[in-house]
Amino acid sequence: MRFKWKRLGENALFLVPSIILTAALGIYPLLWMLRYMFYDYAGYGDALFIGLDNFRRLLRDELFWESVGNTFIFAGGKLLLTLPLSLLLAVILNGKLRGGNLLRGIYFMPTVISTAVISVVFYNIFNSYNGMVNTVLMKLHLVSQPIDWFGPKHAMLTVILVAVWGAVGNYMLLFLAGLQSIPQDLYESAAIDGANAGRRFWSITLPLLAPVAQMVIMLAIIASLKGYESIMVITEGGPIGKTEVMYLYLYKLLFPVSTGSPVTQQLGYGSAVGFASAVIVGAITGLYFLLSRKMNKMY
């Protein structure tokens, strides 16, 4: 018994760094936010307790609710493009393809590259005056004049395409891991019974890949709703708020360093915005979780 308690104490010591980091970087900031969302606090001076005034302001804040709508557009567009493309690439690379390992590394590479670097590169690629996209389109005579990719009409599409390029490799790898866990005997038996490739995909691949797909979709939903880094670099939420998403709006309230930010820090109101944004993301994620569980019971 003494030996077991000694071993338990030694094992517990390994948890101390993680506990300290979690408390310092996770729990304390959360408690700090929960406190100051009831205060009028600019980051300096005294904090004035104002009760629920920040939330009353939030309900009337047109910029915030516009950012919520933009978040849904951005997340929806990213999910509709990223998930099918990731699954398609995973299915292709799961086959006996020459150079498959090299292609996996190439497709996964954007995931490990800095978002800021990716955003700067794509900013130059989509540049309206000398960007490569407009140059190619005009040389192919697909357009008669350069497209303003960062204008009100195309800005959201541009940031969605950049986000898709950066996310496809990550979800492709997860789908690929799920595909490789499916026994090959099932495909061989189905082929002997006369099932073609399409039939094998719908009857074997999709049903057995469902648990992995549910996890991937949940991760993709959370990441899409919380994503803002590439938008901050490329458009800063512009033009005229067309690409302003929830967490970019929150960032500008807490760290007003860009030209589109408020003049002063608004840590109290920013805490309320952060809480509301977290509730929205949590509600959507929870709704998806409930729907996926009901579908599991049905099928």
UniProtKB/TrEMBL annotation:
It comes from the Bacteria. It is found in: Cell membrane. InterPro entries: MetI-like, MetI-like_sf, UgpAE/MalFG_permease. This is Carbohydrate ABC transporter permease. Its main location: membrane. Keywords: Cell membrane, Membrane, Transmembrane, Transmembrane helix, Transport. Belongs to the binding-protein-dependent transport system permease family. The keyword Cell membrane applies. CDD domains: TM_PBP2. The chain crosses the membrane at residues 12-31, 72-93, 105-126, 155-179, 200-223, 267-291. Residues 68-292 form the ABC transmembrane type-1 domain. SUPFAM superfamilies: MetI-like. It comes from Paenibacillus medicaginis. It holds the Pfam family BPD_transp_1. It is a multi-pass membrane protein.
